[in-house]
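Reviewer comment 2.1 asked that we show a complete input and output for one of the modelled complexes. We chose the adenosine-5'-triphosphate case, as it is the one discussed in the main text.
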Amino acid sequence: MAAAAAPAIPVLVAGGVAALVLKFFSRRPPAAPEIQEEASDDGKDASSAPEVPPITLSWHKICCALQAKDGITTVKRLLKNLSGEAKAGRLLAIMGPSGSGKTTILNVLAGQLAASPRLKLTGLLFVNGTPCVSTSYKVAYVRQEDLFFSQLTVRETLSLAAELQLPGSSTAAERSRYVDDILQRLGLVRCADTPVGDAKVRGISGGEKKRLSIACELIASPSVIFADEPTTGLDAFQAEQVMETLKKLAQDGHTVVCSIHQPRGSIYSKFDDLLLLSEGSVIYAGPAQNEALAYFAGLGHSCPEHVNPAEFFADLISIDYSSPEKESASRKRVEAFVEIFATTLYATRSLSGTEPAPVKLSTQHVTQQKVGWWKQFRLLFRRAWLQAIRDGPTNKVRSRMSVAAAMIFGSIYWRMGRSQTSIQDRMGLLQVAAVNTAMAALTKTVNVFPKERAIVDRERAKGSYGLAPYLAAKLIAEMPIGAAFPLLFGAILYPMARLHPSAKRFGSFSSIVTVESFAASAMGLCVGAMVPSTEAAMALGPSLMTVFIVFGGYYVNSENAPVMFRWIPRVSLIRWAFQALCINEFKGLKFECDKPYDLPNGEQALERLGFGDSTINKAMVEEGRILLFWYTMTYALMRKNKPRYQRIVAPDESS
Ligand SMILES: Nc1ncnc2c1ncn2[C@@H]1O[C@H](COP(=O)(O)OP(=O)(O)OP(=O)(O)O)[C@@H](O)[C@H]1O
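Response of the prediction step:
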C-alpha cells in the first residue's frame, strides 16, 4: 500500500506547480499586456527613432561554390565575384530571377549562410571601409517565414524581445516606452493587443506579421537591416506597407538591404539602389532609378514608357528556357551584360578604389546574452505558460480526445467483475490505457515542437537566451496542462471500468499515467529536436513508439524475446507504465475460482506476467530514468544542432 501511494508524488508536484503558477499569474491576467505604468525617471522622450551608427557595408569578390564530396571539384558556382555596397540611409534592393543567388548573397552579407562542409565561401567584407569583424556592427535579419508564438499578442511578443535583448541596466518604463515607440513606428498600434495567431486561430494579417518580424529585429537597434523577400505571400496593399516601413527605416539612418521578386512599380520607386543578379553574377549594381534605366538604355535596351522597370529588368536578365534557340540567345545577352558590367565604371566606383588588403574575416554575428539565467527563465516560463493555457483549440481537442478515449474504453471494459476472464480484460485495459496515454502525449508534442524549435533556434542564434533556461522553463510551465489530460482520462475510465476500488489505488493510477505522459512528451521533444520538420517527426515518433508498444509487457514477454531485442523492454516507457499499473491493480485483488488451475488472486496474475517480484516504486524509478534520458537527449541534440554559419575567407587564404 505504501508503494502504491508513492507515485502520487508527481501528481502532487504537478498540482503544486499548477497552484503556484495560477497564483503567480492571478495577479497578472494572461491577456493583459505587460506594460509597466511607471513614470520616466529621466524624462527622456522615447518617441523618436533611436540613433544608430551609420554603416556602409561593402563587399568585394564574393564567391560561393558548391563542391563535390572530394572537396576539390566545383559542382556549382552560386555567387561569382560579387562586389557592391549598401549605404546608410538607403534602401538597396537585390533583384533577379529565381535561383540567381539573391538569398545566398543576403545570407552572406548578414553572416548567416548556413554552414556546410561542401560550400566554399570567399571574399572580403568592409564596414565603413575597414575589414568587417564579428561584433563591429549590429545586424537585423528578417527572414522569409515569420515565426512566432501564436498565442502571444503583438505587444507581448515585442515586450519579451525587449526584455531579453535590451541591456539589464534599462528600467521597465524605458523598455515599455521603447516597445511603444517601435509599435508606433511600424504601424502596429492597432493590433498591439491581438494575438499573433496561426492556422487554427486567426490573428494578425500577413503584412502585420512581417512588420512584427521587422519590429522584433529592430529591438536591438541594428545599423543594418536585411530582409529576405519581405513581400512574398502578401497582397499588393500589405506589400506596399511593408516596403514603406523598410523605406522609412532607411530614411531613419539604417542601411536596408532586401531581396525582392517582381515588385510592382510603386514599390520599385522606393528603391535607392539596385543589385541585379542573374545566375550568381552581377548584371548591374548602382542607383536604382534613372541611372539604372540610363545604363541599360546605353546598352541598347530602353525601358518603354509606362512599363514597370522591375518587369523590364526581369525580362531582360532572365534566361528563356522555352526553346534551345531562345535559351542560347538570352544566355548570350545575359553573359554580355555580366561582361560589360565587370569592365565598367559602375562595377568599381562604389568601392574604395584601392584593392583592399586580404584579411582573415569572420561574419558570424552573435549578440551577447544580455540578461541573467533567472530572468531568462522567468520570461521564457511566462511565454511557455501563456502559449500553453491560451491554446484553446489544442486544449479543447486534447480534452475531448481524453474524454472520448476514456468513454470508449470504459464502455468496452464496463464494470469488470472478479471472474477469471476479467484478469485478461484488466491486463488488456491497462495496456490500452498505457498506450493511449503515451500516444496522445507523443503526437501532441511532435506536432508542435519542430515549429517551436525553429523559433527557438533563431532566437538562440541571436544570443537572446540560453538553451538550459528555455528547456527548464518550457518543461515546468507545461507540466500542469500536460498532467490535466491523463488525469481527466483516468478520472473517467477508472470508475467506469471499476478498477481496484480504493482512493489510494486511483491516486497511484493517475500518477502512473501522468509520469508516463511526461516521459512520452520528453520522447516527442527528442524526436522533434532530431529531425528537421514536423512531417519527419510525425513519421519517426509513432514508429519508434510502436516498437515500445510491442515490448510493452503485454504482447511479448521479454524473457521469450530474441537476445538482441531483450534490452528494448528495459527502455520502453509503455512497459514500465504497464508494469506499475498492473501491480497497482492486481496486488491484493481476489478472483472467483471454479477450477483448480484458476488464479485465486492478483499476485499470481502478476507472476504470470513476470512482474511478481517488482514494485510500483521500482517501475516508476525506471520510468523516471527514461524521462530523464529523453530530456537529456533533447538538450544534447538542440545544443549540437544550434545553427552554424559559413565562415567567409579572404580569396588568397582559401587557395
Ligand atoms: N546550401 C546550398 N547547397 C546547394 N545549393 C544551394 C545552396 N544554397 C543555394 N543553393 C543554390 O543556389 C542557387 C541560388 O539560390 P538562392 O536561394 O540564393 O536563389 P534566389 O535568387 O534567392 O531564388 P528564389 O528567388 O527562388 O528564392 C539555387 O540554384 C540554389 O539551389
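Residues 421-461 form the longest helix (41 residues). We note this here for comparison with the apo prediction described in Section 3.2.
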